[in-house]
Write a structure and sequence with these properties.
Elements (H helix, E strand, L loop, with lengths): L11 E7 L5 H12 L4 E3 L8 E8 L6 H5 L3 E9 L1 E3 L8 E4 L8 H8 L4 E5 L8 E2 L2 E2 H6 L9 E14 L2 E8 L5 H12 L3 E11 L2 E2 L6 H9 L20 E4 L1 H8 L4 E4 L5 E7 L2 E10 L4 E9 L5
Parallel strand pairs: 3-12, 14-16
Antiparallel strand pairs: 1-3, 2-3, 4-11, 4-12, 5-6, 7-10, 8-9, 10-11, 12-13, 15-18, 16-17, 17-18
Helix pairs in contact: 1-6
């Protein structure tokens, strides 16, 4: 006997402004219950301390969550100087305290920040969710076990000093996936000679969405209490894939793609992921492969079931 599916089919993306003090999964479960959705996932966890842009994927949109995870991110963070913690943020135990250099100027800070712009390498924190032998590193850290972590390349596209206060710096960061802002702040603190940790972190960009695109969970709850449908708040998954070019298909090419078969497009030469459309609707993601002079072989990679 087939198992009955719990929840209803809900498809699309909802971007939440995550509040502090709760995990990303905690927010996901709240919103999933509000929608009564059968399938949902988030696209990159934020620490409980952090707030801001958290895209949630429902149903067919979950097929594209990995691509969304791979997108650039942006943050505004506050670095508290003079104190290092176990977790590199204010939730961890203090491991060292040093005085902030007297007479530290914005020019001094800018000269240090310059070394962290562009391509750098980071050693992930032991309190990260990266896995070692199937377990997240933070589980080892809580047991007092140190695991060797190789440095990983990341790119800091922008690193801007927004404000300097007594013992604190406000920074704006635009970076590639896999960048740990906590580590970045800690390393900047070491370069300044006093150490530092993150005391506030707000994500302002993820998967192409900004704070202007976000919704508050409290507003969703109020809508439900008033008997309003939440489905109109969802956006189509292709809204998170605008970094890829668009290709319109018709006729036999469209039918072939929807049947999972590659097609040859004459008169165009391109490679890499491409958004596929047919009959003015998004049908999925394909991959272009050059196929001779001025032609491309397009292979379907992720199709939305409703387009079949």
């Amino acid at each position: 006997m087939a198992r009955r599916r719990k929840g209803r089919d809900v498809n699309g993306i909802l971007v939440i402004d995550k509040p502090a003090g709760i995990t990303s999964n905690g927010i996901l479960q709240q919103v999933k219950r509000l929608y009564g959705a059968a399938k949902a996932g988030h696209t990159g966890a934020l620490d409980p301390l952090a707030t801001g842009v958290l895209p949630l994927c429902f149903g067919e949109a979950t097929k594209f969550s990995q691509l969304m995870l791979d997108s650039d991110k942006a943050y505004v963070t506050t670095a508290h100087l003079g104190i290092r913690t176990e977790t590199a943020d204010s939730e961890g135990a203090v491991v060292s305290e040093r005085p902030v250099p007297s007479g530290l100027t914005e020019s001094d800070i800018e000269s240090v920040l310059a070394d962290f712009r562009g391509d750098i390498e980071q050693v992930p924190s032991m309190y990260s969710a990266l896995k070692h032998q199937g377990r997240p590193l933070y589980e080892y850290a809580r047991e007092g076990i140190e695991v060797e972590r190789p440095a990983r390349p990341v790119t800091i596209h922008e690193l801007t000093l927004l404000a300097v206060r007594d013992g604190e710096l406000d920074l704006a960061v635009h970076c590639t996936k896999g960048t740990y802002v906590r580590n970045l702040v800690e390393d900047i603190g070491e370069a300044l000679g006093c150490g530092a940790h993150v005391s506030a972190l707000r994500r302002t960009l993820a998967s192409g969405f900004t704070l202007d695109d976000t919704r508050q969970v409290a507003d969703l709850e109020q809508m439900r209490e008033q008997g309003e449908s939440l489905d109109g708040l969802l956006v189509a998954p292709d809204k998170a894939l605008t970094m890829f070019p668009e290709l319109a298909l018709e006729g036999q090419n469209l039918r072939s793609i929807l049947n999972g078969q590659p097609v040859r497009i004459s008169g165009q030469s391109f490679s890499g992921p491409v958004r596929l459309y047919g009959d003015s609707r998004f049908v999925g993601l394909g991959e272009g492969q050059p196929d001779g002079d001025d032609a491309t072989r397009v292979v379907p990679r992720r199709l939305v079931s409703s387009s079949r």
